[in-house]
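user: can you give me the structure for this one chain? tokens are fine.
assistant: on it. calling the predictor now.
[tool input]
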Amino acid sequence: MAETPSIERIIANTINEEARGDPDALAVRIVTALGEAGYRILPANGMKETARGSQPFDALTPEMRPQDTWGDGRDWTFETSEHGGDEPDNMPQAMKATDAAGHWAIYVPLTRADKIVVPRPHSETVSSKRPEMAPLYRSPNGDTWFLARDPGTGSASVNYVDFSGLFH
């Protein structure tokens, strides 16, 4: 059985093979190479798309978003929808929250790997260390790619800095 190459090796190989021009295209090729090697790729916010089925959805534009003027929900109404889910209980699987102006949104439980989760207290999840950054590649024009690792979780990301010093 072949050993899965490290994230660092996959990214470095992709950059060395294809670093010619468009950094956005290169990013797509890096993500593709990581996926082909068996790594699970999620958006930067760590969330995957959860809307399932054929139901069409529209973007919740800023003017449509419910607003909590007082920050405590006093002018809001809440309506539960589906209950139960995978567990034999009566937990709501979604809630409709409506503000005083009639703007509404649907809220669902947090999930990871299709299991409902609750976040740990902030003090248990905050790392006092800054992410570890290792240079992966520097192009002739000064663009640089870094591998960043969170010392608390070990999660990795690629940071791109253009020749002017701006992070992307």
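assistant: here you go. The mean pLDDT is 75. The first strand starts at residue 77 and ends at 80.
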